[in-house]
Amino acid sequence: MVKRLKNRCYGIYGKMVETVTKIDKAGRVVIPKEIREKVGLNEDETLLVADASDGIVILKKLDIKELAKRLRSELKGINVESIAKRIEEESNEQARKEYAALRD
Q1: What is the pLDDT of residues 74-96, one digit of tens each?
Q2: pTM over 0.85
Q3: Whether 33 contacts 23, CB under 8 Å
């Protein structure tokens, strides 16, 4: 069952709302009001944009507080500072090797 909503959006079996939109010159995409309301998107929300393949782009609402809570739980007992320091040192060493000619 496909149903037209407000001449733009379509509900398919009550599970999904689709619409057609365009990308402007600045690369912005307007998410229609019906969809923003349905998924609870507000101004200044953080979205993850992912290329899912075959021309499919996924926008996923990110809950920063929930993400931080999950990271705290998963990283409990791990010395994150030492990992960050090691990554920085390795990155600097790699850059020195790759760009050695620029130092001379």
Answers
A1: 888 888 888 889 999 999 888 88
A2: no
A3: no
The answer to whether the CB of 43 falls within 8 A of the CB of 15 is: no
**Total domain count for the chain?**
2
pLDDT category, 2, cuts 50, 70, 90? very low
Give the max Cα distance, the chain.
70
Q: Looking at the structure, do residues 52 and 97 belong to the same domain, yes or no?
A: no
Reduced to 3 states, what is the DSSP secondary structure of residue 8? coil
Query: Which residues are bridge partners to 58 per DSSP?
Result: 50
Q: Are residues 40 and 73 in the same domain?
A: no
Q: What separation in angstroms does the CA of 55 have from each of 9, 49, 51, 88? A: 20, 13, 7, 35
**Domain extent at residue 84:** 65-103
Q: Tokens 């609402």 label which residue? A: 61
**Residue 54 confidence (pLDDT):** 83
